[in-house]
Amino acid sequence: MIQSSSSQDSDRPFVSVRFTTFVTGTLCLPFLGLISCIFISVFFHFEDATKTHCQVPNYLPSISASIGLTPERYIWRFCIGLHSAPRFLMAVAYFTFYHGRLTNNCLVELLSYLNLTCAFSENIGLLLLTYVSSNETHSIHKKGFVVFTGSALIHMLITCLLWRAIKMYSMSHELLKSYWWKKRLCVSSVILCAAASGFYWKHNKFCEPGIYTLFALCEYLMVFCNMAFHLTAFWDFGHTDVTLAAPQELKLI
């Protein structure tokens, strides 16, 4: 349950956490997990993590390589497993947020439903690429990565469109700051995705030294932009709480 911190309710709260704490903790999990996996891969499994199909020099592991080794895969799976359920809750919270501010508009209604679908598919794609590593079933892992990346970019674009519609009415200083960052992180993600795709194609076509390193670097930055985009919820729901509660009276029928 997500509610305003000032609202009074007849439910008895079991746990009540500020949404700012909730979203920060949720997004710290994949951030710290990815940093840990990359660090371990570079310093302990460098040869295995950076090898390429054409044996050209490479100096950074791709995300798929860094989360496909042991113990890196278990660290990543643990972090994403804890992170996934709150992400679904955040998607529903945003869906409610849009419906509370944008009404009587068929296009906006359609975009809000599409945005919710993309948020769910982004999370499902992330779970798929996490629990099916590239070393196990490469084709399924690749499909999970495509679903995650495509859904994430579409989700960002639709979100910016919805926030542009919200701006036409009124926005607080915090919401304006959130919108400012959303736009820039969305543009950055699209540019980085295009650059990563170009480097990936060039590596597979020409096998030039260092090109896969540039692909991996763009991949890191794109994922960090995605995390930062979701972290803007810090401003969007700054005055709300996440509460686990039960009714005062429980009746057995």
Question: Which keywords apply here?
Answer:
single chain, 253 residues, mainly alpha, 3-stranded antiparallel beta sheet, 9 helices, 3 strands, 71% helix, 7% strand, globular
Q: How would you portray this structure in words?
A:
- With 253 residues, this protein is mainly alpha-helical.
- It is 71% helix and 7% strand.
- It has nine helices and three strands.
- It has a three-stranded antiparallel beta sheet with strand order 1-3-2.
Blueprint of the fold:
Blueprint: E1 2-4, E2 12-18, H1 19-44, H2 46-50, H3 63-66, H4 72-101, H5 106-131, H6 138-167, H7 173-206, H8 211-231, H9 233-236, E3 240-246
Antiparallel strand pairs: 1-3, 2-3
Helix pairs in contact: 1-4, 1-8, 4-5, 5-6, 6-7, 7-8
Short description:
The chain is mainly alpha-helical and 253 residues long.
Kindly provide the radius of gyration, computed on alpha-carbon positions and rounded to a whole number of angstroms: 20 Å
Percentage of residues in strands: 5-15%
Give the termini distance in whole angstroms: 25 Å
Mean pLDDT: 89
Which parts are unreliable, with pLDDT below 50 for 5 consecutive residues or more?
Answer: 4-10
Biggest sheet statistics: 3 strands, antiparallel
Overall geometry: globular
Tell me the structural class.
mainly alpha
Transmembrane segments: 21-46, 110-132, 144-164, 185-203, 209-229
Protein name: Acyltransferase PGAP2
GO biological process, one term: GPI anchor biosynthetic process
Domain CWH43-like N-terminal: 20-239
